[in-house]
Amino acid sequence: MTAFQSRFAPLPEFATPALGSVTFPWGFQACGIHAGIKRRRRDLGLLVSDHPAVSAAFFTGNRAAAAPVTVTREESATGALRAVVVNSGIANACSGPQDIDDARRMRDLAAALLDLPPGEVAVSSTGVIGEPLPMEIVEQGIERAVVKLTSEGGEDFAAAIRTTDSSDKTAALSFDARGGEIRLGFAAKGAGMIAPNMATTLCFVTCDAPVPLGLWRAMMTSAVEESFNRITVDGQESTNDMVLGIANGAAGIVLGDCDLEQLSEALHAGLLSMALAVVADGEGATTTVCLCIEGAVDSAEAERVARAIADSPLVKTAIYGRDANWGRIVQAAGMGLSRNIHGPLACDVAFDGIEVARRCHPVHLDETEELQLMEAVAAPELRIMVDLHRGRGSAVVYFSDLTNHYVHLNAGVRT
Amino acid sequence: MTAFQSRFAPLPEFATPALGSVTFPWGFQACGIHAGIKRRRRDLGLLVSDHPAVSAAFFTGNRAAAAPVTVTREESATGALRAVVVNSGIANACSGPQDIDDARRMRDLAAALLDLPPGEVAVSSTGVIGEPLPMEIVEQGIERAVVKLTSEGGEDFAAAIRTTDSSDKTAALSFDARGGEIRLGFAAKGAGMIAPNMATTLCFVTCDAPVPLGLWRAMMTSAVEESFNRITVDGQESTNDMVLGIANGAAGIVLGDCDLEQLSEALHAGLLSMALAVVADGEGATTTVCLCIEGAVDSAEAERVARAIADSPLVKTAIYGRDANWGRIVQAAGMGLSRNIHGPLACDVAFDGIEVARRCHPVHLDETEELQLMEAVAAPELRIMVDLHRGRGSAVVYFSDLTNHYVHLNAGVRT
User: Fold this and answer.
1) What is the pLDDT of residues A108-126, one digit of tens each?
2) Per the residue annotation, which of A126, A200, A201, A288 is the catalytic one?
3) Which residues, including other chains, have CB under 8 Å from residue A370's CB and lie 6 or more apart?
4) Which of A110, B77, B251, B278 is most buried (CB neighbours < 10 A)?
5) ipTM score here?
């Protein structure tokens, strides 16, 4: 899926899409090389801002967090991260007592070669859990990577962070602010262990706008909450999830309030586009579903119902089978309802606007509607609306279907 | 799987296994016929005690409960249920505004033909959600069933309650109490929508011991809690789950304290055997895993961690792939830990006694151990032990693997 191709994440009208990735904004350099952790593919990426920058970072909520998450989480407090070194192939999670030291050595070596304080360099890993990093290969890789940094290296960087992804996930856009052009770049990886809880998967965002740290953090928090925290492929929160946004001010202009609003909107659209690319490329996925829960008692109930439906293997396999099986949706919804509110469940279910159940009872469809329904469930993107008629709480979650290919991949591949 | 063939649910030493099902105990009659709800297979069952009886019933916690659950739940308060009419093929859940009336008509017709008060007859359904029962066929079926009741009808009854089950699930046992022999019979159905929350799936238990209502309920509650509430196939709590136990005293003896203890133990073993048969025959399942969580902060945390692991599609597919992938177990465990207790996760993981991870780090195995590990994960039953080293909370859950066949079944079949 190309960025901004999803109807669920349209490009804002004021913005222009661009080719490119994290090096599309001014003042960023990146590269992606084959260090030798994987057999053949690129497996080591480096991204750095030419200037000091403000940063906002988000990490997995999983208590079995990987070493690079622990290390970068500590550093991120200052909000001054301007570079990241990433490897794919091995997650450096549960890999032995040396795991934290290995993550620090990656960071320290990159910092030394980039002539930066270690506190300005993030480290990130993705891949197999339980195996130690081959540090000699990683260190040689970092040394080779530093000399390959270029302002055109964004695509190689995006390639180097992939694991079972079937394609690179990148986006870039620009818009005209009062004082001049502002650019944003995105690179992400996904595929498995994807669930909506804090920053899920890896995603790196660059921006050349000059933004105060507090404002950048607020913008990123809101955009992550409505994008990466709203997706699920298999309900599995990874050990290594990280979203890192770096804004370096290289555009050299001053932003007004209106510009900041546009920046926030563009950031939302870009992150949602990346998050949806992760869902669309979920392991074995054939369909992206936008699930809207309305009429819940409160937003917590809406969220629980949304997750219960989005992570139900029965719902996910029905969608794979192109079956508008609202019975399984109602059954899964029943698992997520607040126990302390009584009364029977009486919800409406609609597929792309075609109501198939009203108050939990089947709706008769005429021939035209049946045809529309068949077309809706056959499409690569589907919107499902569930109204619980209990209150005013709502939630949106994006999820993928469950296919034979998911089982095949995960029964055969060590991740 | 034949009853009591699982090493996780051995037959108590004092008991003798028997051929048979719910009509093995004295004073019960049953039948199972083809009414015509399904194309060819038996789809309507009737079970009745010749004498007044005490009953204990357990229902789904799903808020989208089916009509027969709602109807039987009301009746069960008196503890005097002595008969049940069950259909398979259609769940009578979310099937329209007539669903409750249809469930009552099934019950009332069976009661009238059996010459019993309606309050002594349970009604139960299993099958497709969202379609109305063909009441004419059901009513004719009940009329035909009543005249087919026999004390040898337990097997036919067990056949009539099946949906996607690949085999009948029955067990029978007897033991010598002080005053004479006591008999227990079991029939269950399972396959999909199986998760550990209250009575999951359908299971009917008969017993000819004379037990006071309060004691029978206490015994059944404890046995259900340690069997049907401890299994998961796909984490999906069904709309129609029900476990019903009927004790009619037809053995005609008086029980002593020691007899009651044996009865309770036999009930546990029988119900666990049925629950494990449901897991072993889970849709597409090839492996039954007994997962033991130890060292949790409390039992609630142990339960959450157990469920997180047992319902993780990554863990389930790894087991299908015969991969002792403890990394995915640690990752899933990390999702279930209490958030308010700090410190990194440092758990041990063992497969059938072979420790593969200690404090979240890989354990080196010698050649013999590697071979034992390969044999352990290749077997149809596997024990996984996870010690969290955080406290004294523990939990046990039984679950099945996730296979291509599960996806195939559920992407193609309406359930």
Assistant:
1) 999 999 999 999 999 999 9
2) A200
3) none
4) B278
5) 0.74
